[in-house]
Amino acid sequence: MTNPTTKPPPDGTGWLNTLSRCWVTLSEGGGTPDRSALVNSVAESLAIDSGRVAGWLAGLDELARYASADLTKGHAIEEEDAGIGAARRVTAPVFEARLQGCAPNLMIATLRLRACAALTGPRGGTRDGASLGCHAPLGR
Residue ranges of the domains in the chain? Predict the structure, then answer.
C-alpha cells in the first residue's frame, strides 16, 4: 500500500485533500479504512504527529454532528449558544492534542525550574545555576 506523500501548503488547505487521497489509497482493497490506519496515513503525509490528526478528525466528526442537527426551536440566542458549544467541541480535540505535544517541553521546563529553585532558592542553595539557565531570584 502506498502512501500519498505530497506535503500540502502550510495554511491547511490541503488537509481535506490529503484525507481524501489517504482514504482512497487505504480503501483500494474494498471496505472502509480503519480509523487508526487513516490517522497514521494522513499524519505521515502531512509530516505531523498522529495526535493532532486524530484530534482534527474528531473535530470534523463533531462539526458534522452539529451541521446535521435540527435547528433549535427557540430563539436565536439558543442557537448561538448551541453554535458556541459546538465550536468548543470541534476545537477541543485539536487543542488537547497540541497540549499533549507540549507536555514533554513542559515537563523539562518544570524540572529545570525545580533544579533552579534548589540551586538559587531562598533556603540556601548557593551553587551557580547558570548552566541550567537559572536567574537569581529577585532581591539578590
Answer: 1-48, 53-119
